[in-house]
Amino acid sequence: MSDVIIREAKLEDVKDLVDIYAYYVKDTAITFEYEVPSLEEFSERMRHIKEKYPYFVIEENGQILGYSYAHEYYGRAAYDWCVEMTIYLRKDAKGRGLGKLLYTKMEQALKMMNIKNLYSCIATVNRECPFLTNASVYFHKALGFKKCAQFDSCGYKFGQWFDMIWMVKIIGDHEKNPQKVKKFSELIDFDF
């Protein structure tokens, strides 16, 4: 992995990120979206996330191979210390340890922000399927996530029903009076 770097995503990256995401929308049940978002819609999503949370890309020799971000888990104040994690790699970049690098860097940032719980919503399958494997479940398990919820037959795509699970990783102590969550932009000492 020569010249692999992780950096903050920029709006100029959106076309590359949409190109990566398009494969997952069109050819997999990893995302339950049916339509690839427009560049404008994707840009707006990124802007919204970056108002508070980290949004990273991983690149090699100047070429973006994947991205990851954290976003609000649920829009209520009591959930402020929780985030949902998302990651997508270019399909030809899988199996190289890039996802682990991205998630590790993301976890460092979130811990510095005072986040306590990381959640990931993952489509699962209990039969052989051309649109989905359970690779994401195994990836998250390898990084210390544990299954905490399951919703059976909740996503319909490609003419079939898919289950969805939530996985969690606790990265902070749940003290009685937790420090306020910081915005990622407030982390002046975060080092890529």
How are the elements arranged and paired?
Layout: E1 4-8, H1 14-27, H2 39-50, E2 55-60, E3 63-72, E4 82-89, H3 98-112, E5 117-124, H4 135-142, E6 146-157, E7 160-170
Parallel strand pairs: 4-5
Antiparallel strand pairs: 1-2, 2-3, 3-4, 5-7, 6-7
Describe this structure as you would to a colleague.
The protein has 192 residues and is of the alpha+beta class. The chain has a single domain, classed as 3-Layer(aba) Sandwich (Aminopeptidase), CATH 3.40.630.30. 26% of the residues lie in helices and 31% in strands. It is built from 4 helices and 7 strands; from the N terminus they run E-H-H-E-E-E-H-E-H-E-E. The protein has a 7-stranded mixed sheet, with helices on both faces. A hairpin with a 2-residue loop joins strand 2 and strand 3. It is globular. The two termini are 16 Å apart.
Largest sheet: 7 strands, mixed
Query: How many structural domains does the protein architecture include?
Result: 1
- Which structural class fits the helix and strand makeup? alpha+beta
Mean pLDDT: 96
Contiguous low-pLDDT stretches (5 residues minimum) are none
Kindly estimate the percentage of residues that lie in beta strands according to DSSP: 25-35%
